[in-house]
């Protein structure tokens, strides 16, 4: 099949073109056509595909297979309006293309700045719908490093340096300081940002760095053995910074502080919350101990032991377990506790001197419930969907103790 001449390789700002259909296929209900030449960028290299129209029909996807670029027209192109040999007019969405040019060129600049100031190579790149990410081969990244890199990157942008594209033979690469050695065989497309950066790249880029507008680093996180940096360029950066400012302004308004006071106010609020959580935990422990004492006092004496049998309505397993342990911490305490929510939960706890083992007692109750569970001599728990038999299961265990 005839290879597609990729017009964007030499002119990323070309949005309109004429071409001829050389092949047409229907795959999974989608109409795909190949052209003798195309300005549409196919998905690849971390950059999404272009969108636009062919003879007025919307292009929903663009993919490359070997040397052929295929354009998806979806259900709208299932007629014969774009059959083989049809002359077409193609129009690439200029707003989406400009956005991708800003982000991709910004990535080259930012990666080169990280390489120059931190010695960190870019090992991954992804151009998403909102943000762009690069993965750096460095274990940790400090805020002062990010600020220095961001400053250098924007100096390159605002310097409005020329961005040139060349197709070079392998021997012409000698002496050219490529940021990364290309792995492909044959001629290499090199994108150069003045003398600041030279990269082998098949993506779309503007003619001057000034088109990028601005580069804003938004966050960075550890990623496997490296660092993932999220950023945005041009209009995306403006929209993202506007969104972050709105979020911060709303938070500051709710706390009745100025934006500059927000970090201190947030820390103060966090400290207060932690204090309240500790106080709440202490109060809950006291309530739990009081409840355990009340239930223990009302429990049935069996020899030197005291058996507490209670079935609660929809009490959490964690609460059941804590209450059972508090009862078993008292002399001869044996707790047989259940919760009859959507699922039956059963907890058994035995004091050391009681002479009983919780896991063995639990087994008798689970037999009645047809449930599953386990534990040890001091604490055991189980469950079953048969909530209606929970009271009977607790009584079965109690009978074993009385026997």
From TrEMBL:
<dbReference type="Pfam" id="PF07973">
    <property type="entry name" value="tRNA_SAD"/>
</dbReference>
<protein>
    <submittedName>
        <fullName>Alanyl-tRNA editing protein</fullName>
    </submittedName>
</protein>
<dbReference type="Pfam" id="PF01411">
    <property type="entry name" value="tRNA-synt_2c"/>
</dbReference>
<feature type="domain" description="Alanyl-transfer RNA synthetases family profile">
    <location>
        <begin position="1"/>
        <end position="243"/>
    </location>
</feature>
<dbReference type="InterPro" id="IPR051335">
    <property type="entry name" value="Alanyl-tRNA_Editing_Enzymes"/>
</dbReference>
<dbReference type="InterPro" id="IPR018163">
    <property type="entry name" value="Thr/Ala-tRNA-synth_IIc_edit"/>
</dbReference>
<dbReference type="InterPro" id="IPR018164">
    <property type="entry name" value="Ala-tRNA-synth_IIc_N"/>
</dbReference>
<keyword id="KW-0479">Metal-binding</keyword>
<dbReference type="InterPro" id="IPR009000">
    <property type="entry name" value="Transl_B-barrel_sf"/>
</dbReference>
<keyword id="KW-0862">Zinc</keyword>
<dbReference type="InterPro" id="IPR018165">
    <property type="entry name" value="Ala-tRNA-synth_IIc_core"/>
</dbReference>
<dbReference type="InterPro" id="IPR012947">
    <property type="entry name" value="tRNA_SAD"/>
</dbReference>
């Amino acid at each position: 099949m005839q290879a597609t001449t990729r017009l964007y390789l030499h002119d990323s700002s070309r949005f309109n073109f004429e071409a001829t259909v050389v092949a047409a296929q229907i795959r999974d209900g989608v109409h795909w056509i190949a052209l003798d030449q195309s300005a549409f960028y196919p998905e690849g290299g971390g950059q999404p595909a272009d969108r636009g129209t062919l003879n007025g029909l919307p292009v929903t996807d663009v993919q490359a297979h070997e040397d052929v670029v295929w354009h998806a027209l979806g259900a709208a192109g299932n007629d014969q309006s774009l059959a083989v040999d049809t002359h077409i007019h193609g129009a690439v969405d200029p707003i989406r293309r400009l956005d991708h040019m800003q982000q991709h060129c910004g990535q080259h600049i930012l990666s080169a700045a990280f390489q120059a100031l931190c010695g960190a190579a870019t090992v991954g790149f992804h151009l998403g719908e909102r943000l762009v990410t690069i993965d750096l081969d460095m274990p940790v990244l400090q805020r002062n490093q990010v600020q220095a890199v961001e400053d250098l990157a924007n100096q390159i942008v605002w310097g409005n340096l020329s961005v040139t594209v060349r197709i070079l033979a392998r021997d012409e690469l000698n002496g050219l300081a490529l940021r990364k050695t290309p792995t492909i065989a044959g001629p290499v497309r090199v994108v150069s940002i003045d003398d600041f950066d030279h990269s082998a790249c098949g993506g779309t880029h503007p003619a001057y760095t000034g088109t990028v507008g601005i580069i804003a680093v938004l966050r960075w996180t550890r990623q496997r053995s490296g660092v993932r940096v999220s950023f945005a360029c041009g209009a995306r950066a403006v929209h993202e910074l506007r969104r972050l400012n709105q979020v911060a302004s709303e938070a500051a308004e709710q706390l009745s502080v100025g934006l500059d006071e927000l970090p201190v106010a947030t820390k103060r609020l966090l400290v207060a919350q932690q204090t309240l959580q500790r106080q709440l935990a202490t109060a809950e422990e006291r309530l739990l101990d009081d409840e355990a004492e009340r239930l223990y006092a009302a429990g049935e004496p069996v020899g030197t032991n005291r058996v507490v049998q209670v079935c609660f309505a929809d009490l959490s397993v964690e609460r059941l377990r804590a209450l059972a342990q508090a009862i078993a911490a008292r002399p001869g305490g044996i707790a047989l506790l259940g919760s009859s929510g959507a699922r039956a939960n059963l907890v058994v706890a035995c004091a050391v001197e009681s002479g009983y083992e919780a896991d063995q007692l639990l087994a008798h109750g689970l037999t009645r419930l047809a449930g599953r569970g386990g534990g040890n001599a001091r604490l055991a728990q189980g469950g079953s969907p048969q909530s209606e038999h929970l009271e009977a299961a607790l009584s079965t265990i109690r009978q074993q103790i009385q026997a």
